[in-house]
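Subject: sequence -> structure tokens, single chain

Hey, anyone have a minute? Need the predicted structure for the following. Not urgent.
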Amino acid sequence: MIIAERSSPIWSVAMRRLLLAAAMLGTVSAAHGADMPDLPILRGSFTDGLSNSSHNWDGFYVGGQYGFATTDIDFSHAPKSMTDFMLRDSILQAPVGGWSLLPKNHVQSTGFGAYVGKNWQVYDAVMGVEANYSYMDNISSTASDAMSRILPGETAPTGHTYTYNTTLGGGASLKLKDYATFRGRVGWDGGDFMPYGFAGLAIGRAEVSRFAIVSWQKYDDFDEPVVSGGVTTTVHRHLPAGSDTLSRTEQRTNSFMYGWTAGIGVEYAFCGNFLLRGEWEHVGFSNVKDITVGLNNFRAGLGYKF
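Reply:
Had a minute. Here:
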């Protein structure tokens, strides 16, 4: 009993020193753990550490392009407005104006140009506006033809019938010099790639010429009784009752065409801010001198984003 009582104070001092050392060691370990890097595995996930970084498409960009275009030039009704004017207020205006005199020609050509635009990026969506200019190397075509029809005439006196033997001749040519488009774009951020679609307005500049010649011979058909030797017979008469030839020519060095554009493409970002693109663009123009033009442009471009 005496020995136990004497050793008790020594044991208490030893236990207090041991607890104090353990507490200090725990504090140092906690401080060291706070300085360790925040590894994904410690949070139970690798997602943040392995995610693909998206490309920054936001900002202004400029570039140049080169392409190949296929174009349909429809001359079918090229003389229409001229024949409508020459035959105005006549029985021939409506039928002659509806004739499809000339063919639709298919033309191929190369072209080059430039573009400038701006993108706004919201998460993976990329929206933008762009002005695009294309100079066409040799989109031009010419057509000419003639056709004749016998057309019914105006109301004639009883027993008479009027007809018109009508011939329409004409020709047209068109050369598309260049065009510009103003379009909106919507794309998707696929990392270094961005597929996109676009639509907008188009304006083109063309050299146009055309001519039309209308000639007609009017006939009066009727039956006439003829008495010969006391015998009456009926003779059919087909007599000319007038004729005319009319012509008109038009030529414009710069005729402006207005229309729409739409298409799809893809851009690839490399070496920082350089952009390589490939796209298909369709452009449809409204009538210019009764000629319609539609083209499909396949082109590649190289740009730089600021």
